[in-house]
Design brief:
The complex is a heterodimer of chains A (215) and B (204). Chain A is an alpha+beta fold. Chain A folds into two domains: 36 residues, no CATH class; 171 residues, 3-Layer(aba) Sandwich (Glutaredoxin), CATH 3.40.30. Chain A contains seven helices and ten strands. An eight-stranded mixed β-sheet of chain A has the order 1-10-9-4-5-6-2-3, with helices on both faces. In chain A, strands 7-8 form a two-stranded antiparallel sheet. The longest helix of chain A has 21 residues. Chain A is globular, with a radius of gyration of 20 Å. The N and C termini of chain A lie far apart (72 Å). Chain B has 204 residues and is an all-alpha fold. Chain B is 82% helix and 0% strand. Chain B has seven helices and no strands. The longest helix of chain B has 54 residues. Chain B is globular and about 60 Å long. The termini of chain B are far apart. The chains are: A alpha+beta (215), B mainly alpha (204). At the A-B interface, helix 1 and helix 2 of A face helix 4 and helix 5 of B.
């Protein structure tokens, strides 16, 4: 009986340990929440990927993020999307309106918006440009890119923890979110789509801090 | 089925389940991942353990430690993050499959020695947890796994709750039958003379 008790307690401890490891000490229950927590603790550096898109945005994605030395709020889209991306689009439209107001208030705007397509085969620069017009994007604030190379695109999605699932009806479901990058091309935070104000305040704060640090 | 054949069958089942085509087909959908892959691996573990003497050793008196291990395993398996991680990390997948195999074996070795009372205690812990997890899966407005679609998750949740209810009913029916049979045997053993005597004394 003693041995049974010892083994039973040991197995309970194993189960507890596995649960604690799986849930980051009972803080998260889903992979998406774990991803957000992990990013907040340790920023994720972008891999080197070549992109092209609207407004002559072409070249390495990290170089694109470094332009202007500001902070970028990014999302992943595909232009045929009729569901989640539309609500992401309207979040971005509201963010753009606020950034415009910042600019008119003579504050330096160091926050930019970037939409990255995960359907690089279909979303060529023309399709992206048409989509950008449909969204009323201001090219000086909000750009659209794709990753033409399939292998690089997969590497990018994997590194950033973006999971895209075909839903069998010709569309995709994906863990849509607002990703905040710094000028060094590191993903600093992942926010929920509904947390756009929080994302913007965080990006402004980070951009302001970067401005002060710069000579 | 003969006990001699069962381990071979279990090994065969393992091989089939390990086959990349079968594994990917099962993991392509959330409900197949949880309601087909998990039980089949546990079944394979149970079959492999056919020739281990049940309840052997002092390490598993009354099947207690075995059932504790299986209950702990079930709790871990209900965390949605596990499904995503198993798809992304081969080490987690290997650990998951090994744990399922061991869990199946432990369940088989512990079930009979546990007896009705401990079985009731075990199921009283595991089945409500399963039903509640099923409810959460079905009612969540968010996708809980990045790799699976929401309608898949809702279906899984409903089936998980239904499975918990079915298992509870099946166990109750089995337990009732077992108790009735035990009563009948007790009657047969103590014999009718004692009963008759009791009845006659009651009459007086």
């Amino acid at each position: 009986m003693l041995r049974t008790a010892v083994l039973g307690v040991g197995l309970l401890c194993c189960g507890y340990g596995a649960l604690a490891w799986l849930t980051h000490d009972f803080q998260v229950w889903t992979q998406e929440d774990a991803r957000r927590l992990e990013v907040a603790l340790t920023p994720v550096a972008l891999p080197s990927v070549a992109v092209d898109g609207t407004g002559g945005a072409a070249g390495d994605l990290r170089a694109l993020l470094a332009q202007g030395g500001g902070v970028t709020i990014a999302d992943f889209i595909y232009t045929r999307c009729q569901t989640v991306c539309l609500s992401l689009g309207s979040s971005f439209q509201q963010l753009q309106a606020q950034l415009r107001a910042d600019r008119e208030g003579a504050k330096p705007v160091r926050v930019r918006l970037l939409s990255i397509s995960f359907d690089g085969q279909r979303d060529d620069p023309q399709a992206l440009a048409a989509y950008a017009r449909g969204q009323g994007a201001d090219p000086s604030l909000w750009r659209f890119v794709r990753v033409p190379d399939e292998a690089q695109q997969q590497a990018l999605l994997l590194r950033l923890g973006v999971v895209v699932v075909p839903n069998g009806r010709g569309d995709y479901e994906h863990n849509a979110a607002l990703l905040v990058f710094d000028a060094q091309g590191r993903m600093l935070r992942v926010f929920d789509m509904e947390q756009q104000q929080l994302a913007l305040d965080y990006a402004r704060h980070k951009a302001g801090a970067a401005l002060e640090a710069a000579p | 089925m003969s006990r001699r054949l069962q381990p071979a069958l279990g090994a065969l089942l393992c091989l089939v389940l390990l086959w990349p085509g079968v594994r990917h087909a099962m993991e392509a959908s959330m409900w197949r991942h949880m309601l087909l892959q998990f039980p089949l691996w546990m079944l394979a573990g149970g079959l492999l353990a056919a020739r281990v003497p049940a309840g052997a050793g002092r390490w598993n008196a009354h099947g207690i430690s075995g059932l504790i291990g299986v209950a702990a395993l079930m709790a871990v398996l209900m965390v949605p993050r596990l499904l995503d991680m198993a798809l992304q990390r081969p080490m987690v997948e290997a650990a998951k499959l090994a744990a399922l195999l061991l869990g199946g074996a432990a369940l088989r070795l512990s079930w009979r020695p546990a007896g009705l009372v401990l079985q009731f205690f075990f199921l009283g812990n595991v089945l409500p947890m399963m039903a509640v997890a099923g409810q959460l899966y079905a009612d969540s407005p968010l996708r809980l796994c990045n790799a699976y679609l929401q309608d898949d998750q809702i279906r899984l949740g409903q089936w998980l709750t239904a499975l918990a209810a079915l298992l509870a009913l099946a166990w109750l029916a089995g337990a009732a039958r077992q108790l009735m049979r035990r009563d009948a045997q007790a009657d047969g053993l103590t014999g009718s003379p004692a009963r008759a005597a009791a009845r006659s004394t009651a009459r007086e």
